[in-house]
Automatic annotation (TrEMBL):
Name of the featured protein: Heme exporter protein C
Pfam families per record: Cytochrom_C_asm
Superkingdom: Bacteria
Membrane topology: Multi-pass membrane protein
Reported function: Required for the export of heme to the periplasm for the biogenesis of c-type cytochromes.
Designated gene of the protein: ccmC
Annotated GO biological process: cytochrome complex assembly
Transmembrane segments: 21-44, 64-85, 97-118, 130-149, 156-174, 202-223
InterPro entries in UniProt: Cyt_c_assembly (IPR002541), Cyt_c_biogenesis_CcmC (IPR003557), Cyt_c_biogenesis_CcsA/CcmC (IPR045062)
Family the UniProt entry places it in: Belongs to the CcmC/CycZ/HelC family.
């Protein structure tokens, strides 16, 4: 039952039809949300009582870290679908998402180092969350390198899917590292059972940036997936693609 449903959803022709109108909407949303979030974050939100103006790094760092984790979760789920049901579209989505996730992991680490210098006095400390984020960076890099190193696409899809699924173990470690071990990072201040511990003047730009990054992720993933499907359609050896599903030509 699940396999049949996924077979319908994983049809490239259906994907091309449905995703076409979403691309410009996602791009426009990303532009508007990130633009509004940046203006509010850097010109209208208040400085922090202890960190001063340096707190504005948060509006880039925190959403970037969220998106790095979210993108890897998408890759892991898509890899599971591709590995179990061998749907080409799932493998494509996982593959094209990786560079985007890698970029935001780098952004999260770089901005975190700058913020750490201001708040902790050092650029880097082997803090549990910093270390687990660095592991995420290596997972992204290894995943991308494997796709590039293995010539047979079906084999590459299977091996990369295994890596992505195994690497997903790191996601809860990143999330709960501040609760499980002594950490320089503060505990959750936004998503908490008793509500955010931040004023609305800081939450608004933070959420605008986060949703803007998410819209940018959708825009990028759809553009890259659509381009990949078009390239595959034009390639004579398309039947060698890693999929057991029956695929219609994408328009």
């Amino acid at each position: 039952m699940v396999g049949k449903t996924l077979s319908k959803l994983a049809n490239p022709a259906l994907f091309m039809r449905v995703s076409g109108p979403i691309v410009p909407i996602a791009g426009l949303l990303a532009l508007l949300l990130i633009g509004a979030g940046t203006v509010i974050a850097f010109f209208f939100s208040p400085p922090d009582a202890r960190q001063g103006e340096a707190v504005r790094i948060m509006y880039v760092h925190v959403p970037a870290a969220w998106l790095a984790l979210q993108t890897y979760a998408v890759i892991a789920v898509a890899s599971l679908v591709g590995f179990v049901w061998r749907h080409r579209l799932a493998d494509v989505i996982a593959k094209v998402s990786a560079p985007f996730g890698l970029a935001f992991t780098v952004l999260a680490l770089m901005t975190g180092m700058l913020w750490g210098k201001v708040t902790w006095g050092v650029y880097w400390d082997w803090d549990p969350r910093l270390t687990s984020m660095l592991v995420l960076l290596f997972l992204y890099a290894g995943y991308i390198a494997l796709w590039a190193a293995i010539e047979n696409e079906a084999t590459a899809a299977r091996i990369c899917a295994l890596l992505a699924m195994l690497g997903a173990v790191n996601l809860p470690i990143i999330k709960f590292s501040v609760d499980w071990w002594d950490s320089l990072h503060q505990k959750a201040t936004v998503i908490r059972a008793d509500g955010p511990a931040m004023p609305a003047s800081m939450l608004w730009p933070l959420f605008l940036m986060a949703f803007g990054y998410m819209a940018l992720s959708v825009f990028y993933t759809l553009i890259r997936t659509r381009s990949d499907l078009r390239a595959r359609k034009a390639k004579p050896g398309e039947s060698k693609a890693p999929s057991a599903a029956v695929m219609e030509p994408a328009e």
